[in-house]
Fumarylacetoacetate hydrolase family protein (Halobacterium litoreum), 245 residues
Amino acid sequence: MHQMRFRDPAGAVRTGEYDADADTVSFGGRTYDTDEVDVLPPCDPSKVVCVGRNYAAHAEERGEDVPDRPLLFLKPPNALAGHGDTVELPAEKRVEHEAELAVVVGEQCKHVDEADAMDVVAGFACADDVSNRTDQREEQNWVRGKAFDGACPLGPVLATPDEVPEDASVELRVNGETRQSSTTERFIFDVPELIAEITAFVTLEPGDVILTGTPEGVGELADGDRVEVEVEGVGVLEHDVERAP
């Protein structure tokens, strides 16, 4: 059963078992409907390591080359948003959605071999790499483009690796309309390759997140849009967006 991190009606942060059929979460002998609690991101990362252009078709739609090694950038903790949250879009900017499989790290690690990489994975979640294209096009470090508050909706649960197939589907819908639909078997660099490359340079801590790249079909978000990111074996992450005044 999937694990859900939430804030209960008394304000305490808990991690409980999520029942998708009943849409409830249980902790300490009590069961709550999810609309009774605040669903939080399933982990509390020190950093989110993101991978750019990990699908050839997405690189093509962006008019960019496929990289010969993983293209990496960071999102800070302030970028996190939870299931059901409303993300504020920067005013007067073109902001786009990017559905992604998120990898949650389970232990501190450095210099991890590909063959051992899955041993450090606690599980998987859904993510939306919300991207301010207006400033991303003008920056080299993508702080305005990728690191603004709420730019990383993550959740709704943590699914263990055995619950998510190797060729899991990744889809995104805006107001019920499918915009992105692909599978993780189309990765240029798979999860073990990404972990090995990242940990060659960066120590990962428990709860850190790796965003594995988005498939083709990215598109602009507008004030009032409802976004759903679905990863096979995980579930559906939902969030709204509103334009900053």
